[in-house]
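Async update (no meeting this week)

Hi team, since we skipped the sync, here's where things stand on the single-chain job. The sequence we agreed to prioritize is pasted below, unchanged from the tracker. I ran it this morning and attached the output directly underneath so nobody has to dig for it. Comments welcome in thread, and please keep replies under the output.
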Amino acid sequence: MTAFSLLDLAPIVEGGSAAAALANSADLARHAEALGFTRYWVAEHHGMAGIASAATAVVIGHIAAATSRIRIGAGGIMLPNHAPIVIAEQFGTLDALFPGRIDLGLGRAPGSDQRVARALRRTLDSDPNAFPRDVIELQSYFADDGQTGIRAVPGAGANVPIWILGSSLFGAQLAAMLGLPYAFASHFAPDALDQALEIYRRDFRPSAQLDRPYAMAGFNVFAADSDAEGELIASSQQQAFVALRTGHPRQLPPPVAGYRDSLGEQGRATLDHVLQCSAVGGPDTVARGIAAFVERTQVDEVMIASAIYDHDARKRSLAITAEAMRGI
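Output:
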């Protein structure tokens, strides 16, 4: 069976708070664990009114403490924002607290705009080739091989699998070269998905961490008891996406009936293209959509993205998703 996992940005809904969002994430993680999800990842974004997972390592600790078996990790940490030794210490600490359950996905995007990036104290004119070197440096801290001349404590000897994340061909090439698992962000950047998977599998070199390619791809699911209800709950993320793309990021809004149709032909086409890796609707519709995506990509694991305004509706969506995955 294809593994299935969940990506969470701890969405702050309109009228809600970061505290409520983080409480919901812990509850959702317990729910995902009971449903058989393989892992639960949170992502680093900064300066976003609707995202509560900016302090990603802290949120991972919060969610890991609320669960007992499911793997918890970062999908991902935006490594250009950080010194590798700091990430080694943070995730070494998490591994010490929750041994054998922590994942570390790494991306090279800043996860913010230039103003926020400057506030994060990163160098805006840094070498674009620094990301591979930073990944190798981070690996060295975990391996405790002495290559850096510095020992990360905690961190040295930690059992934290590293993943490379990407939405272009660069990440696929790097993951293949380093022999690491690869996750593609097709849930919002689908254009290079097929080519990236082909490159990763073709060029993969076995490593101490992984002896064969292991690929994951992001996929949006908005599942409900009927197609109409699925379309309705999906409208919250559609609104948030349009707001972000037009330079007005907002908290996750309540659903609006007929929202997609209100965008006009060009707006609908843009939205449908960017969110093409999605299944929206009732159980049968969602099951067909997920099965078609798995058949197309042959991925080892599907990372489900599902930002839904109502928490109970989101839990119901996950239950329908898990049932669909078990049927593949």
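Quick observations from my side:
The beta strands are 3-8, 39-42, 71-78, 102-107, 162-166, 182-184, 215-223, 278-281, 301-305.
The radius of gyration is 19 Å.
Reply here if anything looks off.
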